[in-house]
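Need residues for this backbone.
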């Protein structure tokens, strides 16, 4: 399997080779054009000087240009033509036979160059001056073929030849040097890009391996991350995700362990009393009555526990699909208070309500369950002859519901844990044994489903539960 790093390396290698080849082709074309332009410009100057020399020679020797003959182009006139241009000259008849030559330095000239006609020689018959650049065994020659006429009759072709090998080699060395510099620079750039990309792909590879561990059910250690770019954000998100999954997994294990414990206790009690009652010689009427009451009590406790678990299960499936509507929370709270009026009167509680808003957007069923649990707990754990204050107000488009009670003290260490499942306060002066330990956990889930938050403020024997929900 090709990894990201290998794919990136192959892609970079392909781009590198393609870039170098393309650059070399561009440089070749550039230097070829530059060299041809140099030869063309130089040959143009040679052409101008040579024809001026020809005119001077004809004037000095009183020869009319229109009366030139083929035999006039002897070695003397040829030498005179080329002596100031640092070039060699050769005059061919129209059939390509050498008539005469003009040498500026015969000791360094390979006379074989005169044997080969220029490539464009025969095109000069159309009265065209042609330039050829030829490579003869490593020697670069510029050949300018000029048709010569007398009285509109072709006499032959004057070919001016110059050696440009030194210029060509100079350009070639410059091109090679530039190729080395550019290739080295490209190599460094692509090496830097590859190293940089490896730095990006390395955490991705680590992340892939860690994800494989998570998919197998294990939770790896956090990935060390010093990057602040998108990959760094991805790594941080992964670390946060694994921590949350680990915590949730542990929470679920504790949850099911607690369920087992909570179900086992009443079942054990029911089974024990049932076995005693089933004995043939059992005739204790008082014990029988107490046992039956205990069986009913434990059955009710199991029923409440099962109903709470069903609510939690339903909440889990409904959490992302709550159907929202306008809910008159003032009416719901007033109704819940009225239902508990006998308990309120029995404990001589003073209920104070303050409603600044009457309705919000939410799920009516779950909001009623939320307020029911909070109001029920508030009344249940309040001291007699105390005040219960229930308030609903709006703060920055947020609906804030609060219930403040004076009663059994909740230890400060339970302030955050009290919203976890199966957490019950068993302290001196406070007992919640009759509770399933799931009520506030259900409340928290309902609040989360409404994208809100629930908190608890403690001040000695005063407790204040605060629920903040989006109003719209």
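Answer:
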């Amino acid at each position: 399997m090709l990894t990201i790093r290998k794919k990136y390396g192959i892609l970079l290698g392909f781009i590198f080779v393609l870039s170098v080849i393309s650059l070399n082709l561009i440089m070749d074309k550039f230097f070829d054009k530059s060299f041809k332009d140099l030869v063309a410009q130089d040959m143009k100057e040679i052409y101008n000087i040579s024809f001026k020399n020809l005119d001077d020679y004809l004037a000095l020797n009183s020869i009319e240009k229109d009366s030139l003959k083929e035999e006039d182009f002897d070695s003397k006139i040829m030498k005179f033509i080329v002596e100031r241009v640092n070039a060699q000259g050769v005059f061919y008849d129209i059939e390509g036979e050498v008539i005469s030559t003009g040498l500026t330095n015969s000791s360094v000239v390979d006379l074989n160059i005169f044997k080969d006609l220029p490539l464009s020689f025969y095109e000069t018959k159309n009265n065209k001056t042609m330039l050829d650049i030829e490579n003869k065994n490593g020697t670069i020659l510029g050949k300018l073929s000029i048709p010569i006429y007398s009285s509109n009759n072709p006499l032959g072709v004057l070919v001016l030849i110059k050696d440009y090998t030194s210029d060509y080699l100079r350009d070639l060395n410059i091109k090679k040097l530039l190729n080395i510099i550019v290739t080295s620079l490209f190599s460094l750039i692509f090496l830097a890009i590859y190293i940089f990309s490896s730095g990006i792909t390395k955490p991705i590879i680590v992340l892939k391996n860690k994800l494989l561990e998570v998919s197998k059910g294990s939770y790896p250690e956090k990935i060390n991350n010093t990057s602040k770019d998108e990959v760094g954000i991805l790594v941080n998100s992964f670390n946060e995700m694994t921590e949350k999954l680990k915590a949730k997994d542990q929470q679920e294990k504790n949850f099911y362990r607690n369920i087992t414990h909570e179900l086992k206790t009443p079942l054990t009690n029911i089974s024990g009393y049932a076995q005693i009652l089933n004995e043939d010689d059992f005739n204790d009427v008082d014990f029988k009555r107490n046992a039956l009451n205990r069986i009913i009590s434990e059955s009710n406790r199991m029923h409440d526990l099962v109903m709470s678990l069903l609510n939690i299960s339903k909440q889990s499936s409904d959490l992302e699909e709550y159907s929202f509507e306008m809910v008159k929370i003032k009416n719901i709270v007033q109704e819940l208070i009225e239902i508990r009026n006998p308990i309120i009167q029995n404990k001589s509680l003073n209920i104070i309500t303050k409603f600044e808003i009457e309705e919000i957007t939410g799920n009516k069923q779950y909001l009623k369950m939320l307020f029911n649990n909070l109001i029920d707990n508030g009344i249940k754990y309040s001291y007699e002859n105390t005040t219960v204050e229930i308030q609903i107000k709006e703060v920055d488009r947020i609906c804030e519901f609060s219930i403040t009670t004076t009663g059994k003290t909740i230890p400060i260490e339970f302030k955050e844990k009290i919203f976890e499942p199966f957490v019950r306060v068993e302290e001196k002066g406070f007992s919640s044994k009759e509770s399933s330990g799931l009520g506030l956990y259900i409340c928290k889930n309902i609040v989360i489903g409404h994208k809100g938050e629930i908190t608890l403020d403690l001040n000695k024997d005063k407790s204040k539960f605060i629920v903040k929900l989006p109003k719209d």
